[in-house]
Design a protein that fits this description.
Helix 1 crosses helix 3 and helix 3 crosses helix 4 (about 65-75). Strand 2, helix 5 (about 90-100) and strand 3 form a beta-alpha-beta unit. The protein starts with a helix and ends in a 47-residue tail after the last helix. The chain is of the alpha/beta class and about 250 residues long. It has helices spanning about 5-10, 20-30, 40-50, 65-75, 90-100, 115-125, 125-130, 130-145, 190-200, and strands spanning about 55-60, 80-85, 105-110, 155, 170-175, 180-185. It is globular.
Length: about 250
């Protein structure tokens, strides 16, 4: 990125406040996807904040603070969206709060329309056991869609190394369902790349990662993973479900 582009990234707040049409956004993806495929994560985020300004945000599951840390170095004050489902581990909420307290980012918690108690009353207790797809749709997919209505592009921490389903995740892609540009700056990172970045930059990591939870979701639907098991085998264990739906 040029010095001018970097400065534009750092001054992104207050710029590009008007949304682009779906056609304009798809055109950006078609032009920049291949060009940025091999770019460093920082350069990918620089392009995103320079292009979309305040209409760009980062999403974070708070398994660690890696993506938030990378984004904060490029664009201090960037919005970091966290889906607060009401079912998270205490450690995950603690990691969210620590990221908000220690990094120059604006952490925003997106919440479902119904509290857990209200959902239990309307749909029956522990819907996540009987119909995990419906629970995820109400507590993750819908809140994210509502939150993203104010943005043209969003960055995820999705990495191709995580699951077979994510091997083809593009660095710059088009999310047809949300009609948004989906940016995955860490798509090409290996587990070793993540570990190296964490060590070199003293990045916050959810303590559950070191306690047998390499992939962290909602507490009732996540179990510890035994040595040698797939990292995501602890998610929705005992079901055929592998994704919450926000990346489908």
């Amino acid at each position: 990125m040029t010095t001018a582009t970097t400065q534009a990234a750092r001054d992104f707040k207050g710029t590009h406040t008007e949304g682009r049409s779906s056609e304009e956004l798809r055109e950006l993806v078609s032009h920049m996807g291949a060009e940025l495929e091999l770019a460093p994560a920082e350069q990918i985020i620089e392009w995103a904040v320079a292009t979309f300004g305040a209409r760009f945000c980062v999403t974070a599951s708070m398994a660690d603070g890696v993506l938030s840390h990378v984004a904060s170095r490029v664009a201090p004050g960037v919005d970091v969206v966290f889906l607060d489902t009401g079912y998270h581990f205490v450690e995950t909420i603690g990691t969210r709060d620590a990221v908000a307290a220690t990094l120059p980012v604006n952490v925003i918690s997106a919440t479902p329309e119904l509290t857990v108690a209200e959902q239990d009353e309307k749909y029956g207790k522990d819907l996540f056991r009987r119909d995990p797809d419906a629970c995820c749709a109400m507590r993750k997919v819908a809140p994210l869609s509502r939150m993203l209505s104010g943005y043209d592009a969003w960055a995820t921490g999705m990495r191709r190394a995580e699951t077979r389903n994510r091997v083809v995740a593009p660095v710059i892609g088009w999310d047809a369902r949300k009609q948004k540009v989906k940016v995955s700056p860490l798509a090409r990172w290996s587990d070793e790349d993540v570990d190296r970045y964490v060590a070199e930059n003293n990045v916050l990591v959810n303590p559950l990662v070191h306690d047998g939870f390499p992939s962290i979701g909602c507490e009732p639907c996540t179990r510890r993973v035994a040595p040698g098991e797939d990292a995501r085998s602890g998610r929705w264990a005992g079901t055929s479900k592998t994704e919450c739906g926000i990346h489908l």
